[in-house]
Every structure is written in C-alpha cells, then in structure tokens.
Amino acid sequence: MTKAQQNYFELFGLEPNFSIDVPKLSAKLRTLLNSVHPDRFASSGSQQQMLSMQKTTQLNDAFAVLKNPVKRAQYLLQLKTGIDTSKEHTVNDPEFLMQQLELREELEEISSSNDIGKLNQFADKIDELEVAQEKQMSELFSQEPLDTDELQKAIYKLQFLHKTLSDIELAEDKLLS
Amino acid sequence: MALLQISEPGKSTDPHQHRLAAGIDLGTTNSLIATVRSGKAETLPDLEGDHILPSIVHYAKDGTVSVGKSAKLFVCSDAKNTISSVKRLMGRGLKDVQKIKEFSANQLTASGTGMPAVETENGIKNPVEVSSEILKALVKRAEDSLGDELGGVVITVPAYFDEAQRQATKDAAQIAGVKVLRLISEPTAAALAYGLDTGSEGIHAIYDLGGGTFDISILRLEKGVFEVMATGGDSALGGDDFDRAIAGYLVAQANIDKGDRSAYQMAMIKAREVKEALTSKESVEINFMHWKGSMDRALMESLIEPIVDKTLAACRRTLKDAGLKASEVQDIVMVGGSTRVPLVRQKVEDYFGKKPLTDIDPDKVVAIGAAIQADVLIGNKSDEDMLLLDVIPLSLGVETMGGLAEKIIPRNTPIPIARAQEFTTYKDGQTAMAIHVVQGERELVEDCRSLARFELRGIPPMVAGAARIKVTYQVDADGLLKVTAEETITGVKSDIAVKPSYGLNDEQITSMLQSSVSHAEEDMKARMLREQQVEGKRVIEAVEAALAENGDELLSKDERHAIEEALKQLAYIIENGDIEAIEEAIKVVDKSTEEFASRRMDASIAKALVGHEIDEI
Description:
The structure holds two protein chains of two kinds.
Chain A: H1 8-11, H2 22-36, H3 46-67, H4 69-81, H5 94-113, H6 116-142, H7 148-176
Helix pairs in contact in A: 2-3, 3-4, 4-7, 5-6, 5-7, 6-7
Chain B: E1 21-26, E2 30-37, E3 40-43, E4 53-54, E5 56-59, E6 65-67, H1 69-72, H2 74-77, E7 82-84, H3 94-97, E8 107-110, E9 116-120, E10 123-125, H4 127-146, E11 152-157, H5 163-176, E12 180-185, H6 186-198, E13 202-209, E14 214-222, E15 225-234, H7 239-253, H8 261-280, E16 283-288, E17 291-296, H9 297-322, E18 331-335, H10 342-352, H11 365-377, E19 387-389, E20 396-400, E21 404-409, E22 417-423, E23 433-439, E24 449-456, E25 469-475, E26 481-487, E27 492-497, H12 506-519, H13 524-554, H14 557-576, H15 579-616
Helix pairs in contact in B: 4-5, 5-12, 6-11, 7-8, 7-9, 9-10, 13-14, 13-15, 14-15
C-alpha cells in the first residue's frame, strides 16, 4: 500500500505553480524536518531510521529545486510537459542573443576597471532583469495551454541571468581579495 | 510477567527512562567529556578535579597504556612511545603527515592501507587505535562518575573535517566500544551551548580559532531549529601562527641564524609567553638568549594582524555562501583559546559591528554543546525540542576525463542528501568504468582529496556513449558518504559505503575490537551477545512506544496482533537465544512493522503540514 512517489510540490502540500514564497517554504521545510529528521529517530529501530533518512533526503532535495527559480521552472516544465531543459539546449532568439553579448561585454569591462561601485550597479541591473523575467515566467506558467516554446526561451533567459549574477559574485570576490 | 498494566490512553506504557548520554570534544591537544545532569550540561572532572584530559597516549614496553596527565609525563622522557596531537593524523595518508612537526620524535610508518602509524615498543599503533584509547579514558571517567553505562555519545569534529577524517573518528568510537549517536561539528556544538543558554533566535556566527585551525560557521536559530547555513575556514591557520610571527621577530632581533632549530624552538616558547602576557598587559620586557628588549601590544598586533585578517577574509566568503551581510549576524560566539587575544576580539567586533560573546569558557563550550545534543538524541527530551540541521562542509565530486573534478554535491548542502549524475562510456565495447570519488573545491582532481576508487563491471558492450551510468552519492546525517553506480539500461549495479583511501576496513576494525577486548580479558562472544540483547530490547521498546502512540489509529486489529506476536517472540528469544537467533527475531519484527513505520512517517508529515497551515493563519 505504498503511495505513488509524490512530486516536489506535493511533498510540501502545494499546487504545482511557479510562484512560490521561498521564506514560507523554508519555514515549512523546517516544520516537516522537525517530525521526520534522523535526529528524531536516533534511538529507534534501524527501519525507522532508514525511512526517516529517505524522507529527509527527499525533502532536502525538493527544497533545493523549489527554492531556485531556474531549477523550479525546469522541474515544473518537465512535470507538466515532459520537456527536459536541464541539459544543454539552444534557443533561437536573436534579440536576446544580442542583449546577452552586450551584458557580458559590460561585465568584462567593469571587472577590468576594478570599480566596485560600478559592479554593484551592474548587479542591481541584472537583479531587476531577473525579477522581471521571473514575473514573465509566472505568467507563462499560468496560461492554458502552455506555450512550451516561450517557456523554454524564458527558462534559458533566466538561466543566463543567474549565471551572470554568479559571475558578478566571482568578480566581486576577486576585487575584494 | 506483568499481570496488569494500567496506563492513560495515548501515553507510553513504558515509564520514561532517563538514559545516560555524553558529549565528547575529541581535541588535538585536549579532550573533554560532558553530560546533562538535572537539566544542566557540565563537563566531568577526573578524580583530582581536572576537567581537561590532555590528548596524549603513552604505550609502555610492558603493555600498559596510559592516557592524559599520566601519559604527559612521558612526553620528554620517552618521546618515541608517547603520541600527542593524534587528531592531525586521523584520516590522512602517510605522505600528508610526514611534515607535521609534532611527530618528529615518533617513528611514523605506513600501515597496510597507506594510513600512517606510529611504531612503539608496544607494537605499531594507528591513529584510530590511539584515538580510541582517549575515548575509552573519557567514557570510563563518565561511567565512573555517573555510576552507570553510557547509552551513547555525540563526538565533535572540526567543521572542516572531510569524509575520511569523520569516518576515522567514528571507527575509533567503534573500537572503543561506544555507541555514536551522531558526529556534529565543533562550531555547531558551541552554538548549541550558547543558543540554549540565551534562547536567542536569529543568525549566529561561530568564530573558532584554535591552535592550528580556524573554523567559521553561520547558523540560524528559529523556533528551536538550528540550521547550519554555511561553514568555512582554514585547516592550517591558528594561534600557533601568532607564535611563529612573534618568534620570527625575536629571532631577527637577536640576530640568530634562521637554520638554528633549537634557538627557534626557544623563540617559539618565548613567543607564546609574550603573547599570553600581552593579553592583559600593555608591554613586556623580554630576555631572549643574548638579546634584551621589550614588546608592547601595538608591536605584537602589527606582527599578528595579517593572520587575523586572513580569518576575516574567510568570514567574508562564508557569509557570502550563506547569502548574508555581516550586519545581519545577531551575535558572534568565540571558541578556542586563541580568541583570548585582544586583537582578535577587537577585529571581529569591528568586522561584524558588535561585541562578540565570550562568557562560556572557550575550552569547555564545545563539549557542553555536544552533551546537550546527546541528551536530545538519546531521547531524554520531548519532540518539540531543538533540531539540528547540518550541511556538508566540502563539495563531493567525481573524476571525469582529463583529471577534472566534477561536483556532484556542492559544499554547504543540507544533509542527509542524495544526488545522482549520469555518465557514459567513452570507448566502443567498454565493459567497466572506474569511479574515483573526490572531495574539495578545486577543479583539478590532483588538488582535491581522494576518498575512494571503485569499479562498475559487467556493463554490456555497446558503442561509446550508449551506456547510461548513474552514479548516486548519498550522505547521511553524520556526513558519511555512500556511493552507488548503476548502468540504467541493464540494471548492472555496484555500490560501496565509501571507506576512505586511508581508513580501516571492516575486518581490521573487527580484529582491533577483538584484540582490545582480549586485553580487557572479557569474552568477545559474551560481550557481543549482551550488545545484541540490548539492541533487541531497544527495538521492543521503540515499537511498543510507537504502538501506544498511534497503533490504534493506523493499524487494523489483525495487523496489530501480528506485530505483537513478533514482539513476544523477540522478547522470548532475547532471554533464551543466541546472537544469531536474536538478530533473526529483530529482522522479523522489522518486517512486521515495515508498513506501520511507513504509515507513521506519513501521518507525522501530514500532521506537521496541517500544524503549519494553522500556524500561518
């Protein structure tokens, strides 16, 4: 009578949606872990310990995906349509490609100028773009039927912005050290 | 046999039994053991009233093993049979440790597995055995003073300890014959000690500067849940570097040749005195060999400042990993003797913008925190009490083509966790694949730590790139890793519990266990039977408590009856059977409760979700 594997949203008692309140999700994770974590079973039988480890692993895994907008979008798209965007994929959007090149150039320039103020401004700009992109993603996911082409593009864009943010962090690390 | 049991509905029929548990700080120079007594955690002293046990073991020719103060007496007179700082050898290869100066007097040699070992007149001793002697001494101290056997212990390890070092620590406990409830990291233990005393919610930073290592951990405490957000540090940075910087100055002033080792040794001792004196005084007079001079605090601070700055750089990186700014940290806990240096306190205060906490003895705080956690894990506290969520300190990866390390689980991922990655064959007809498990942040495998190598064999010959090999890494709540590899098209499987490259295998542990027991002249069989009986009783107790809690709502009459029958059988066999029979009966109970256990887990999740929803409203 084992239940079919729950998806990540179900594990947290959520409907599969792109919009998620991450702080709330994190509070929910803690509540759930409070009742299933292996530390609660340190003096129970090995079977209970095993189950608790599996459950906790699942919850930790699910949380890692749901808290990250790119992974969440990829997971949701795959859940709804079976399309896997986690591997390398290309998207044909010349306009975005141009914007991408410009943003990369801008980052390189700022990194070599060693200007931390400019770097922070640039980070704010990317942050804004990312917020807008997440908003669009949320709208795309609420359409019926799903526009899978647009969604794949949107995921690709979000992924790029995320990568740029982590590159900014690396540049900042270099500047500060 | 009980004739009649009266109990309130929903309450366990078993009267709650207080179990003894202890926390152990297994340190490089000193070790301590602590326990919770009448609600208060405290370290336990030896008969002379000393709480600290020097982490020193002496092996005499006649077979006597002494630990602690009595072993310390031999440090000078019988250096080669006396082992100090054994923690530095744990989980390391011989090559890693040959340069460590602490072992210059000892004869280091390779044991069968490439693990370093020390030649003594009482035989070759590996670091795991030596550590187990320290653990035994601590456990004995606790059992003597508490008057009963310990049900389990929590042992602390540096946050930066890798897989191999953690495994070695756990092996040492196994050889010492003590049940490990959990390994937790030292900074986390320190936070537990403070967090519970002050009950303060929010973000805590634990700044732990010992003699030779520096750890920084960022934790969040919310509604009794302690969450490690990030850890970082430097495993080769500590108070000894302060001494070295000061000694360098003394040697230069006295115009002594840098190669003069004995003069340098003296300079190190002098440097330590100067450092300690300048903790309270503004200036000290120095007589070092033929040189007479003085040093004020400002001069010393200029010498050690670059080292303190390095610790702050590590703090910055770790805060970043946690996604936080220094100003968001609510308080900073200071651990380790080197945090007594005023400049350290000052610079930490400047960096975080608030005064660090220094009220618990920095030498005892780790053991106290471990004792608190042990008390929770052994079940002396109710469920609503605190929960500790830890992370892996270093990324776990696998070697890919070209000697590159590909990360499978990045550092600071909460544990327990499992992650899978797919690989494929690169040659036509390839039937085996070597899997090299590594740990570390660097890109090249040679810069990372090698944890284990194993092979997946029996892959059916296919064209290159056609096979799908899924490698799964699973890390448990102690931070220990298990790796499985599976060819997903055919289902060919291979798995190993990662026994680190420089660890002990199960046979070695068993043989050490046997020899350690025969030393104590206790019959191995009898001891194993007793352990199995205890285990059986533990199972019965756990199942009975579960039945009392929600057997009625989750089980049909028949299901419940089947479980109770299995329990009865086990209870009988515990009194009348041998080791194997008990083991078998436990398996039967496990089998009979499988479904019940799973329903209980689901029910508790459902309950938690509902509870959470109510909290939100």
